[in-house]
Amino acid sequence: QVQLVESGGGLVQAGGSLRLSCAASGSTGSINAIGWYRQAPGKQRELVAVISNGDSTNYANSVKGRFTISRDNAKNTVSLEMNSLKPEDTAVYYCYALVAIPTTQFQYWGQGTQVTVSS
After folding, report:
1. Which secondary structure element, helix H or strand E, spans residue 63, and what is its range?
2. What digits encode the pLDDT tens for the residues 66-100?
3. Helix (H) or strand (E) holding 103
4. DSSP letter, residue 10
5. What does residue 47 show for φ and ψ, rounded to 5 degrees?
6. Strand 113-118 relative to strand 10-13: parallel, antiparallel, unpaired?
């Protein structure tokens, strides 16, 4: 089991910046990838950014060049630095962790943190 707790959401004006953090606990040694998804009202949850154990990263096209994901393995945290925020970035942001074993995989989610970007 993996527990994820997000922090750092809030209200910011367009063009501003926010930093989200996620603290992982439990079986953190079994995590294969960790990152962020978001869900805006009336829309499906979508990938924002994810980082693997090999430190390879994957970003949604809509955030490339503006958002940066990083992880601190010693502290079991993952962060998302969000710059040049746009109103369309408004969503609930969820921390996500993937645990993959030979026969199946498990997905874990945090409770979410609201990010609101005003125009």
Report:
1. none
2. 999 999 999 999 999 999 999 999 999 999 999 98
3. none
4. E
5. -65, 135
6. parallel
Long-range contacts of 91-94 (CB under 8 A, 24+ apart): 91/38, 91/39, 91/40, 91/43, 91/115, 92/38, 92/39, 92/40, 93/6, 93/9, 93/20, 93/36, 93/37, 93/38, 93/48, 94/6, 94/36, 94/37, 94/38, 94/39, 94/45
Instruction: Pull the structure tokens for residue 95.
Output: 């921390």
Report residue 79 as tokens. 């962060």
Structure tokens that stand for 109 in this block: 């989610």
| pLDDT for 10 beyond 90 | yes
